[in-house]
Design brief:
This protein is α+β, with helices and mostly antiparallel strands and 301 residues long. The chain is built from 12 helices and 7 strands.
Length: 301
């Protein structure tokens, strides 16, 4: 079972909805699927459980005659397609008007907003496993409905994006917190907690990796610093002699030679002075080293 299917399975168990909540959920599916016209409702779905849910809503919301059938589609491989059909008849015009939902009504009532987004998710939502990546996509046929969803998501402060992909419009989210908020909105509470646990573990793992990389980088830097200092000290010893250095520089030179892998702080602790004091001493050693290089190059050595 895909991650999307798990979430939709939980959503399909949501019940005890008011008539207007059912109407909004139904209306959002019909609009996204281009299934609603002034002449008839014809809704094609590949998921039997979603088809049963919407068929039940229709039976509960209107006395009209409603048909449902299935056929086999060979597009992208053989699979069943369930078709819900409501022909124009008595009560159709009245019911059609109820299915035209005002955006302001959706935004002013949390339950209505939940029903709207839940319907769209059931119709065209795809959620990737957070173990792989944070991604929630809505593939929508209708440009107007895609823009409508995009506007509503941004009005409720969910950072979403919209683009055209082949023949469909894609509204998508990539922020884990926004995606988890959508899971709560659509009513997938169990999957919200599962998703949250995965994100926490991933963040801890990433933090651990970053800290390990930082430690490795620091260790590498310390080793490289020690190697460079030893190289300069050996050059000074060969070309000048360490006993010709001042007492404090000679001391730090011998301590470094005995402790090639120690950090500056560790060298400072051994000698008993501050880290900045050690750094200054090595700067003076570096100056002596560079002067020797210049003198030797000028003399042709």
């Amino acid at each position: 079972m895909s991650y999307t299917s798990k979430v939709k399975k939980e959503i399909l168990n949501i019940s005890n909805l008011s008539d207007i909540e059912k109407t909004i959920e139904l209306a959002s599916v019909l609009s996204i699927k281009n299934a609603l016209s002034k002449e008839k409702i014809i809704l094609n779905l590949e998921n039997l459980e979603i088809a049963k849910r919407l068929y039940t809503f229709l039976k509960e919301l209107t006395p009209m005659k409603i048909g449902i059938k299935y056929s086999t589609s060979k597009k992208l491989g053989p699979h069943k397609v369930f078709t819900i059909l409501v022909e124009r008849q008595k009560y159709f015009d009245e019911f059609y008007k109820k299915l035209i939902i005002d955006t302001n009504i959706i935004l002013k009532n949390e339950k209505y907003l939940n029903s709207y987004i839940r319907g769209i998710f059931l119709a065209c939502g795809y959620l990737k496993d957070p173990n792989n990546e944070y991604s929630l996509d809505f593939f929508i046929d209708n440009e107007i409905e895609a823009n409508h969803l995009f506007i509503i998501l941004n009005k409720i402060n969910k950072k979403s994006f919209i683009t055209k992909k082949k023949r469909k419009y894609l509204v998508y989210l990539r922020n884990s917190e926004d995606i988890m908020d959508i899971l709560v909105i659509v009513g997938a509470i169990e999957e919200f907690f599962a998703y949250e646990n995965i994100t926490i573990m991933k963040e801890l793992k990433n933090k651990t990796v970053r800290e390990m990389n930082w430690e490795v980088a620091n260790e590498t830097k310390t080793l490289n610093t020690g190697k460079n200092q030893i190289r300069m000290i050996n050059y000074i010893r060969e070309n000048l002699g360490l006993d010709n250095l001042s007492e404090v520089l000679e001391e730090v030179a011998y301590v470094r030679l005995k402790n090639p892998e120690c950090s500056l702080q560790e060298i400072a602790d051994i000698i008993g002075i501050s880290k900045s004091g050690i750094r200054n001493r090595f700067k003076r050693i570096e100056e002596i080293f560079k002067n020797l290089l210049i003198e030797n190059s000028e003399s042709g050595e």
